[in-house]
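## Example record

The block below lists the input lines for one assembly entry, exactly as stored, with component labels intact.
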Amino acid sequence: MPFLNMMIKIDLCLEPSLTHAMTDLVQSVRHDLGKNLVIDPALPEDDPDLLEAWTSELIETLREDCDFLLETLQREDFGAGELLLEETVAEGLIRACSAIRLKIRGTALREINDESLEEGALNPADLSFDQQRSYLCYLFLAGLQSEILVALDPSCEDL
Amino acid sequence: MIMARIFQASSGQTTTELATDTETQISPPWHVVVLNDPVNLMSYVVVVLRKVFGFDHEKARKHMMEVHQLGRSRVWTGEREQAEAYTHTLHQWQLNAILEHDD
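Predicted structure tokens for the full assembly:
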């Protein structure tokens, strides 16, 4: 029996210049993510072999997910309305969105407190140019992730 | 298999084997615990818990709210090997998860 990969549909209308700017930033973050994790894989015992295997698999998944995201952002039809995605690609995209948001949170936005970020109560005038770009990307990826999440699981729409 | 070992032990032949097997049976369970983070969306955590553990929406939402309000939620308990596999999968989904056991 052939493997059937479900398709999901999202609807996005974006200015191409915004997408290009976000793609550039995602590309630079992806470069760092290819070497390091964004979460701490704390294991209960000090076992270097297990940690090595554990970490290298996570980095491999992270690279694949970020590549899915970059390929999607570079599609000609991205941001031009309806976008069809295979479910496995969609899952990779939402993992990549989380990874990059975590990375941005821990680097460019590390000096900003959690409450301000969660409430979206940041004044752009208080941010440096790099922080403004990173914050825009942080919000952009949250929006993209939310669209995909609802398409994958409509029961999440109320959250 | 367990009964066979007990039978052999009662005849005084494999006491050591029985002791080892009993230790295995009563080894403390391992827990998979998801910790709060300030970045991942509530809806994302719910979808991940549903995908990884097969929870229904209400159960996934209950665990997500525990993580959000209490900082942590024990989402699965059982044997170590499976607990490690679940924790690794949660890490692939960029959730902050740890392994704990009762000792």
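Chain A touches chain B through 33 residues (CB under 8 Å). The helical segments of chain A are 16-33, 48-73, 87-106, 114-119, 129-152.
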